[in-house]
Amino acid sequence: MDKLQKARKMINEIDAKMSALFCARMEAAKLVAEHKQEHGLPIFDKAREQIVIENNAKLVEDDEIRSYYINFLKYTMKLSRQYQHMLISGMKVAYSGVEGAFAHIAAGKIFPDANLIPYSDFDSAYEAVVAGECDCAVMPIENSYAGEVGQVLDLMFKGSLYINGVYDLEVSQNLIGLPNSRLSDIREVVSHPQALMQCAGFIKENGFEQIQEVNTAIAAQKVAEGGDKSVAAIAGKETADLYGLKIIEKDINESSFNTTRFAVFSRAQNMDKAPGNHFLMLFTVGHVAGALAKAIHVIGRHGFNMRVLRSRPVKDSNWQYYFYVEAEGNVNSEEGQKMLDELKEYCEQLKVVGNYSNQIVL
Questions:
Q1: To the nearest 5 percent, what fractions of the chain are helix, strand and coil?
Q2: 3-state class of 207 per DSSP?
Q3: pLDDT digits (tens, 9 = 90+) for 101-133
Q4: The pTM of the whole model exceeds 0.85
Q5: Largest alpha-carbon pair distance within the chain?
Q6: What is the pLDDT of residue 248?
Q7: pLDDT at 274
Q8: Which of 93, 113, 229, 318 is the most exposed place for a label (fewest CB within 10 A)?
Q9: How does pLDDT run across 43-52, given as a tens digit for each residue?
Q10: What local confidence, expressed as pLDDT, does residue 263 receive?
Q11: Which pLDDT score is estimated for 18?
């Protein structure tokens, strides 16, 4: 047997083994896809793929071959992503509003292959996941200028869903109107209360009357259908394009740093114990002097850094408040469980609603 025949025999034997290993790897990818669909997680995880490349590249000692192996890994993971996209293409993602709303834009960026299902309000989108009509829901929890979205925080407090991902969407608000309208024509602006708040300075400067709508896309839709050039909406560029409107004035939000944080809600809780995660927690304390201070002290003493602490009124109880905490660290770790056990001594109600890795910019 000459060298060529020997080499071909070796390659055939190796390829046979690799084909079996490839099938096994794709079967594992299928399990990953199932997990991500259950937990409302996106397919592409850049940080995870980088860890896989770094760890596996160390197994190849030859420097020259290592560079080819890295390319092999990248291509293999690309095929894995394509397979997962195909598997979960029937995933149903709920959002509040109509096509073109910022929640619709965010959902499309997080889940590009999913079926995006619109609902009239936050409660309906949330309940669609609870009832099993949808796999997950994408809803805003905070805007960098206007603050938290109280309705969604209240759903976290009273509902049963979990947050397994938080994403930042940069928001540019624009004054949009009919193709033949000009700034001097506008008398009324219609939009979501948060958008109106973000553009309060511009609205006051121009003396516009404000009309609230459930979201920015519905506001744009009404302007397009109304045919009144004295009425404009405040919304994003994508929304203007969708409804055949033109941008009369762009970037009218008061702050140039205008970002909305969206959370993905699903029925399954993320129990990942990997370090570097974040968690969301809600609790109430009794009317005892120092109860809140003691609860906060417990969180810090166990090594968890609080990034956010807010209070919200409990809707069905006068003068009762719950507290919303975002903290760095993994609540599923041993130390996290110790913290929760100790918090129960001071909290009348205690609920972990989210455990996720660093929030992602869309």
A1: 45, 25, 30
A2: coil
A3: 888 989 998 888 788 999 988 999 999 999 888
A4: no
A5: 90
A6: 92
A7: 59
A8: 318
A9: 788 878 888 8
A10: 93
A11: 86
Cβ partners under 8 Å of residue 322, min gap 6:
157, 282, 283, 284, 311, 312, 314, 349
Positive or negative: CA dihedral 178, 184, 185, 186: positive
Q: What is the token pair recorded at 50?
A: 């980088």
Q: 346-350 long-range contacts, Cβ below 8 Å, gap at least 24? A: 346/285, 346/286, 346/291, 346/294, 346/295, 346/298, 347/283, 347/284, 347/285, 347/295, 348/283, 348/284, 348/285, 348/286, 349/282, 349/283, 349/284, 349/322, 350/281, 350/282, 350/283
Q: Looking up tokens 């809803």, which residue turns up?
A: 139
Q: Which residues of the chain have pLDDT under 50?
A: none
* Identity at 73, one-letter amino acid code: L
The answer to whether the beta carbons of residues 217 and 99 sit under 8 Å apart is yes
Number of Cβ within 10 Å of residue 203's Cβ equals 20
**Angle 143-350-301 from CA coordinates, rounded to 5°:** 85
Q: What is residue 272's predicted lDDT score, i.e. its pLDDT?
A: 65
Q: Which amino acid is at 89?
A: S
Burial 149-172 (b: 16+ CB within 10 A, else e): beebbbbbbebebbbbbbbbbebe
CA angle, 220 then 146 then 252, to 5°: 50
Q: Taking the CB of residue 338, how many other CB atoms lie within 10 A of it?
A: 13
Report the pLDDT value the prediction gives residue 117, as an integer from 0 to 100: 92
Quote the strand ranges of 61-151, DSSP E. Answer: 92-96, 115-119, 136-143, 147-148
pLDDT of 137: 94
In DSSP terms, which residues pair with 175 in a beta bridge? 234, 249
- Beta-bridge mates of residue 212: 191
